[in-house]
Amino acid sequence: MLNLIDSKEILEKEIIDNEMVLVYFGGKSCGVCVDMKPKVENILSKYSKIKGLYIDVEKSNKIAIGYSIFTIPAIFLFVQGKETIREVRHISIRDLDTKIDRYYNMIFG
After folding, report:
1. What percent of the chain has pLDDT over 70?
2. CA quadruple 47, 82, 55, 69: dihedral positive or negative?
3. Which of 24, 27, 58, 85 is deepest in the core (most CB within 10 A)?
4. C-alpha dihedral sign at 87, 98, 23, 104
5. Are 57 and 70 in contact (CB under 8 A)?
6. Could you tell me what percent of the chain has a pLDDT over 90?
7. Burial 84-99 (b: 16+ CB within 10 A, else e)
8. 62 neighbors 93 (Cβ within 8 angstroms)
9. Closest by alpha carbon to 39, among 21, 60, 22, 61?
10. pLDDT at site 109
11. What is the model's pLDDT at position 72?
12. Mean pLDDT, residues 69-83
């Protein structure tokens, strides 16, 4: 599940407080973002220890700019506070799942 957040402070706290955090940057006016969101949530349902966060860039564009997001959708995976995956625009759900699985097994194996 992706939890909507609208604060840079909350985002940074979640990244520090959780071993793995997936951040999905999207927007309601982006058709690809709307279509991809349930697919990302489906991936997250397989990984119970990953914290899922959603940032609506139309409402929280300062957060997006702070992470150099200039096109959406964008997906980041933070592992132990460090950005390990950054996927932007043309995102393969299958490849994303494979990458997440690799890190998940290394951390929680």
Report:
1. 100
2. negative
3. 24
4. negative
5. no
6. 99
7. ebebeeebeeeebbeb
8. no
9. 22
10. 87
11. 97
12. 97
AA letter at 63:
I
- Which amino acid, residue 50? I
Q: 82-88 and 20-26: which strand pairing? A: unpaired
Q: Determine if the peptide bond prior to 38 is cis (ω within 30°).
A: no
Can you tell me which residue has the tokens 């793995």?
20
Among the CATH numbers 3.10.580.10, 3.40.50.1360, 3.40.30.10, 3.60.15.10, which is that of 3-108?
Answer: 3.40.30.10
- 49 token code pair: 């220890």
DSSP class of residue 77 equals: E
